[in-house]
Amino acid sequence: MYLKSLSLQNFRNYEKAEFTFDNRTLIVGPNTSGKTNIIEAISLLSNGKSFRTDKDIQTLKFGKEIGRLKGQVNGTTLEVVITKGEVGGKITPTKKYLINGVSKRRLDFVGNLQIVIFSPLDLQIVIGSPSNRRNFMDEVLEQVDFDYRVAIVEYEKGIRQRNSLLELTRKQLHRDLKQFEYWDNLVVKYGNIITEKREKLVAYLNSQNKDIFDFAVVYDKSIISKERLLEYQEEEKIVGVTLVGPHRDDLIFEMFDNDTKAAKDIKFFGSRGQQRLSVLQLKILQLLFFEEKNNNSPLLLLDDIFSELDEGHIIHILKMLGVRETIVTTTHEEFVPNEFKDTMKVIVLSKKNE
User: Which tens digits make up the pLDDT trace of 161-201?
Assistant: First the structure.
């Protein structure tokens, strides 16, 4: 997986910018110079979504109507176009995906550039809300599994339609069984596909050696079936939303306490250092998972890891890079040991990029 170049137009702080990358690239610049914006742009070219926001309009440069990202990956041109879409005072942003200039569905766009990001925001996978952990599972599986991408799209569509029917039922105090039957069948079918694939991912994470920080992953799954939907029928009628299914899944990261001889939830009982190391270990496992699935290394993006890890773990990560294509960002070039920096292309940003 080789990203040769990146072109940005009206994206975040960049009005127009071009970057080229080597197998190892170091991006250096002070805070607010746009380092993480480059990483975010690459994530959009990878999976069609930002890892920082779910509102595409926030990625547009202030005052601009359209933004464009373009990358050259293994001879293929990937492009994302984000439009503000203001009509009659109402803003309805649109996003378009192109491969070699041909418009594509996100289903077919994702997977052409596989990435693993390690950034300070990843701490939320362990300490944040369940949605952060579901997003992590989606981030991993969508990049390598087309059937999972289809299942997510169909399931989310089914849940939206079903919730609309539930809200109507709540207002009218009447349930149209025929309308529910179609959407119930759809969410059960695709919900079970999602659950099965998430189970396999969790099993993989638990089966691997963890030489940085040992933990176990507990899959707290919300099973969906016709029987469970029937079981929660009255509660759903009151609240107007679907109460069971993989949209309510969670993961629990547990470490073993030698003193108490018991497993403890890292979110509540781990130190900040242990939480960071568990995230780092998780990202390394994601990298290995991709390589096992594809016999190919994804692009590794290390965003400001020098502020998150101690020197020993930084050296461990840098030694692990091998022949993997890697882009590293940092505020100070001297943070990178010379033995690694000498093998890297260096891109220097300044605050004028704001």
Answer: 999 999 998 888 777 888 899 999 999 999 999 999 999 99
For 34, counting Cβ atoms within 10 Å of its Cβ (0-12 exposed, 13-18 middle, 19+ buried), the class is buried
- Tokens 């944040």 -> residue: 128
Strand-by-strand arrangement of the 24-28 sheet: 115-118, 299-303, 326-330, 24-28, 345-348
C-alpha to C-alpha distance for 25 and 281, rounded to whole angstroms: 22
pLDDT in tens, 95-117: 999 999 999 999 999 999 999 99
Tell me the residue length of the chain: 354
Distance (Å) of CA 289 to CA 148, 209, 336: 15, 12, 27
Query: SS3 of 10, please?
Result: strand
The model's pTM is 0.92
Residue with tokens 């529910």: 180
Whether 224 contacts 155, CB under 8 Å = no
Phi-psi region of 9 (alpha: psi -120 to 50; beta: other; left: phi over 0): beta
What is the C-alpha to C-alpha distance for residues 278 and 112, in angstroms, rounded to an integer? 28
Q: How many CA atoms lie within 13 A of 147 on its CB side?
A: 10
From CA 40, how far away is CA 31, in angstroms rounded?
15
Identify the bridge partners of residue 5 per DSSP, sorted by sequence position: 20, 72
Question: Among candidates 82, 83, 81, 69, which has minimal Cα distance to 14?
Answer: 69
Q: Which of 84, 70, 18 is nearest to 353 (CA)?
A: 18
